[in-house]
Each structure stands twice: as C-alpha cells, then as structure tokens.
Amino acid sequence: MRTVIFALFCLTLTAQDFPVAKQAALGAELVRQVRRNTTPVQSQAIQEYVSQLGVRVAAGLPPGQFPLVFPVVNGLENPLHEPLMLPGGTVFVPLSLLAATNDEAELAGMLARAIAYASPVVSIGPGQIPLYFWGSLYEPMLPAAALERWRATELEADKSAVVAVSGAGFDPAALLSYIERVQPAAGGVRPVISRLPPLAERSAALTQAISQLPARATYIEDTSDFAATRALVEAELKPNARPRPSLQRRP
C-alpha cells in the first residue's frame, strides 16, 4: 500500500499544554485515519503475541495516562519499520517489523522505544503550532532548533528502551544490533535533515546506556513463541497468501 501522508495542525495546543481530554480526542481521530489507510492483520495469534510482549516491556517504563493497545497492521510504511505511538495509548505495529527483527529481544526493543517515545507531537516553539507528522513525511522539514530537539528525543527513547527491556529480561544490546543493521539501509533517510541522530552518535549513546545497566547473568534473546509467530508473519506476507478478489462468477 502506498504510504499516506498525515499532517495534523493543532491550532490551540502546545506540547507544554496538552490536556488529557484533548490527547484522547486527538488520538481517536488519528486512530481513525490510520485504520482507514492500513489493513489489520487477521491472525489472532500474531495480535495476541505482540500485545503480550508490548505489555511486558511497557511495565519497565513510567506508566502513561492511557491503557496501551498494540494493533498489528499492514501498510504502515516507514524505513525502519517503527511502530507508531499515538496520543491515547494506541501503538500501531507494522507487520513488517516482525519480519525485519531477528529475534524477540530486537522486537521488544523496538516496541519499548516506541512506547518511550510517547506522543509524536513536536512543538516548533512556545506559542507556535505543534505538528503531527507520519508517513511519507517521515523526514519533515523542520527548523534546525526543532530538529535538534527531535533528535534528542530519539536518543532519550533509545536509552529508556534499553532500561525497559533489560528489566523485562531481554538483551538490551539487541536494540543496538537492530538499529545498526537497519538504519544504514533505510534509503529514505537523509542524514542532513533526518529526524534520526547520525548512526555513529546513536550507537555510541546506546552503547554507553547499555554499559550502565546492572549486570545480569543471562538475557532472553529468542523464544519459541517468536519463532512460531514469525512463521505466521511469513505466511501473511506471501503475495498469494489470500485469493485476490475476482469479478468472475463461480459456477
């Protein structure tokens, strides 16, 4: 599915003044937009697995104002297969992320950083209009100061994610492995204007954050549940997994 551009202008709000009721209303509208432009994954087993994993890693992060839900969808295109965390607690997870991750620890890390990222609302400055960007506007043209703040938020989300996954028993180095493997190959990410920090800076910050975690004897990297889910994902992603609609009448 072609990536859809969303740009939502919140005329009366700033990132410093975003009441819970308005977050819920904004989130509900964004959820409707995303659902109109994506396809829910029909496999209940995939949905339940991602939901359980998401709840597990979220337990290591500060509690939010809304309960979290983790619908898995097709059509949520972005270069790094990142989940989309919306105001109101909905975390849309692209099916492609489950195919791109090599083990459960990598998937847990990406879910954790999406939750840690909190609201994708960026304030250009005090009293100015905050913007919500997603989709083909993955690399929005922002003023330098706003872009710098956005990159700092990305680094903080990385650090919070490794703390959360480590607390849940997963290897925090898996997130670093995923980012180092996938970010350089993300063809649409232009280093000069990308909201993502440069890979070297991001890797160094993650390595430092991981080194400061309490030592553990063992970490979870992969599980049989992940392997079973990956098999279902591969079946979902096959071009001919489902028959295409036809105008021909059946005999």
What portion of residues belong to β-strands? 5-15%
Number of helices: 8
Anisotropy-based shape: globular
Query: What order do the helices and strands follow?
Result: EHEHEEEHHEEHHHH
* Strand numbers in spatial order across the main sheet: 2-3-5-4
Total strands: the figure is 7
Q: Mean pLDDT, rounded to whole units?
A: 78
Outline the biggest β-sheet.
4 strands, mixed
Structural class: alpha+beta
Q: What distance lies between the first and last C-alpha atoms, to the nearest angstrom?
A: 32 Å
Helix content, binned percent: 40-55%
Which regions contain 5 or more consecutive residues with pLDDT less than 50? 1-16, 119-138, 243-251
Rounded Rg: 18 Å
Describe what you observe in this structure.
With about 250 residues, the chain is α+β, with helices and mostly antiparallel strands. It has a domain at about 40-120 and about 145-235. The chain has helices at about 20-35, 45-60, 95-100, 105-115, 145-165, 175-180, 200-210, 225-235, and strands spanning about 5-10, 40, 70-75, 85, 90-95, 120, 130-135. The strands form 2 sheets. The protein has a 4-stranded mixed beta sheet with strand order 2-3-5-4. α2 (about 45-60) crosses α4 (about 105-115), α5 (about 145-165) packs parallel to α7 (about 200-210) and α6 (about 175-180) packs antiparallel against α7. The longest helix has 24 residues, at about 145-165. The protein starts with 5 loop residues before the first strand and ends in a 14-residue tail after the last helix.
